[in-house]
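BUG-334 | component: ligand-complex export | severity: low

The export step for (2S)-2-hydroxybutanedioic acid jobs runs without errors, but we want the raw record kept on the ticket for reference. Input record follows.
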Amino acid sequence: MKLVQFAAAVIAFALFTAAQAQQPVVVKFSHVVTDETPKGKGAIRFKELAEAKTKGRVKVEIYPNSQLYKDREELEALQLGAVQMLAPSVSKFGPLGVRKFEVFDLPYMFDDERSLERVVEGPVGKGLFKLLEPKGIVGLAYWFNGFKEFTANKPLRKLDDFKGLKIRIQSSKILEGEIKAFGAIPQVMAFSEVYTALQQGVVDGEENTPSNKYTQKMHEVQKHMTLSDHGVVMYAVIVNKKFWDALPADIRRSLVEAMAESTQYVWDIAKKENDDALVKIKAAKTTDVYVLPSTEKAVWRKAMLPLYQEYEGVVGKDTLQAIEKTVAQSSAKK
Ligand code: LMR
């Protein structure tokens, strides 16, 4: 090769490398809810902060509402590196072989979000994230949505009202146990399929936060809602470990900062998002909203107690005791 050709090749390669160096790092952030939810708004806030803090060296592409992947697929896509970031409900880690996250599915475990926040920010939350690493996943943060309410096309006021109903749940063995303890039939289903299944009567009801119900228009196909506050929807924001470990340290530091600020934002807005969604559901006049009286709530809570014994082996006695201690301390402070 003549010297001129060699020099031209070197310059071309240098230009290519320089161009490559200018290419932003792309973070595909896939999730299954609309932008108008605590998680949807948190993803958008993370995108804004991540792109600003890295001065454009990172580009976050958000794919909301199961556009790219739905429930089960999204975890597989993350492990394959087809997407870099997710924020699935912690009820959905069972199929990944990490069932300990289902501890958050135990009914009536929490009655206020502050104790929940203390649990996920403490040793329990950190210990659960450690379990994800052998799966090629890094846990970055926990985002809160809200307390779950039941809906169905018949009033749900007493335990007997659940008899024989098909109730949609997330892919969690403890949620299966919960719905059976209510005397109903659990049906695991992807979040993106729930509206149609309710509309067609494939399932009779489901449990979710008001913001999830409203943004999926479930109130249009559910005549009755019971404010039972019997469980929580909590998310783990996770990234593909290979991608995360390969990031330049300064970019990773900026993303950690962006994640911390967007996490605080999600916890700050979650309650209002759900309160506002409930107001809109009531205003739509499609669903009769019933507040479960505390006397009846005590009956439901008692009926759920055997689940704690039954699943202690799965979630770990130490984890259960640590959570119950935090919840008790939180109640004492009220
Ligand atoms: C559900 O599947 O009901 C929820 O986990 C959806 C979500 O991500 O909030």
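Assignee comment: Attached the raw record above. The two ends are 80 Å apart (CA to CA).
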